[in-house]
Amino acid sequence: MIQSLKGFRDILPGDVEVWQHMEMTARDLFEDFGFKEIRPPVMEKTELFKRSIGEETDIVGKEMYTFKSRGGKSITLRPEATASVVRSYIQHKMYAVEPVRKLYTIGPMFRSENPQQGRYRQFYQINAEVFGIASPLIDAQLIFMLMTFFSRLQVKDIGAHINSLGCKKCRPEFHKALSVLLSKVGDSLCDDCNKRSLKNPLRTLDCKVTSCRNALAEAPAIVDFLCEECTEHFDAVKRFLDRQGISFEVDKQLVRGLDYYTRTTFEIQTGLLGAQNAVAGGGRYDGLVKALGGPEQPAIGFAVGCDRLIEIMTLDKKAYMKNPSVFVAALGTQSMDMAYGWVCELNNIGIPTEMDYSGRSLKSQMKRADRMNAAYVLIVGEEEIKKGEAVLRDMNTKEQALIPLNSIVDNLQKALKIRNTKHETRNNIK
Ligand code: AMP
What we know:
Layout: H1 16-32, E1 36-37, E2 43-45, H2 46-53, H3 58-63, E3 65-68, E4 74-77, H4 82-91, H5 94-97, E5 101-110, E6 122-131, H6 136-152, E7 158-164, H7 171-185, H8 191-199, H9 210-215, H10 228-243, E8 248-250, E9 262-270, E10 278-284, H11 288-291, E11 299-305, H12 306-312, E12 326-330, H13 333-348, E13 353-355, H14 362-371, E14 376-380, H15 382-387, E15 389-394, E16 400-404, H16 408-422
Parallel strand pairs: 1-5, 7-8, 12-13, 12-14
Antiparallel strand pairs: 2-4, 3-4, 5-6, 6-11, 7-9, 9-10, 10-11, 14-15, 15-16
Helix pairs in contact: 1-6, 6-10
Adenosine monophosphate (AMP) binds next to strand 6, strand 10, strand 11 and helix 12.
């Protein structure tokens, strides 16, 4: 038997309905906030990720699925979406017509990490990116939108952690202070952090290795080095969050694993997932559009980890199962013939309808209808055809009614509506 790859998994019917609900909730909310969907490809030139994420990051250094194309070019399955969205913003010159763009995308990302609970090699993200707005209003609004999204999905035990990473102006001073510490504790740092110390000291603060964490516990905090503009910006973000009643914690040690972040950075953490406690992360990346060959445009975005979000949603998963409203139990060739037409027509007008295709006994068809959680069964056999009436059985109350076979689709529609208002059914019948 061929099994799926390690770290890659199937999301099966029974689970997928909750995923659909999560995605719909995101689409509804984000589009109300003015976001438009964008669907970039899942594969890009490797160079895009190297340049945007940074060569010394774990993602680029160790985790990318990189191949040679048949033509010998280096291509990579995207490990995250921001780089692709930025590439697209630049490639299609979106900034030329209207620099302010709010874009969202939903889809799979690929990282060759060690699979464990909450960490997969193919995982899903919902991304939102805003281009062309430098104002702290949008930083706060984005976090507000994100927290609203979580609350619509009834996610409990989450908190927003925010920090500011400063800008080109204030970072050098901070780097200097950090480098002094790094040169003292070099022996306790992992090999990667020793390399990072030279190339990008900020990266060391994101390292998960315990000896590095311990050695850097007393590391200087970048918020203590912010320039005046960055301080004002960060203060305004906090003020706007307060105004919308969003509680947050300033986490001075919060740095993001990607190179291009500036100023506001945030992570939504949960206490429900053990080590993999981040369900979403994001921040400002004012330098990236320019770095990738576009014009100077500020930008900010976030990524929600769908796999982790699904784990902590407290919704009743059964409520999202789509069950048939009607199951046609047809007995005999003539009835099956008729049932075939009804099933097509009813589904076409939005009444989810199923039938048995193999002409089994009434008992086994009823069992199947029950297993499928059908709200009603429409029974039609030779007897019913003779009488010109089919039997409609409410699977909840067990009540039965006769439905004339003439214009049965209309009659059924009427009967279902009346019965639907009379009884609490297991399904919503349109
Ligand atoms: P990042 O792009 O690393 O900032 O990740 C954004 C979010 O994606 C994280 O907060 C996680 O929820 C999720 N995520 C990142 N890597 C994985 C993974 N390997 N498996 C599942 N979710 C992940």
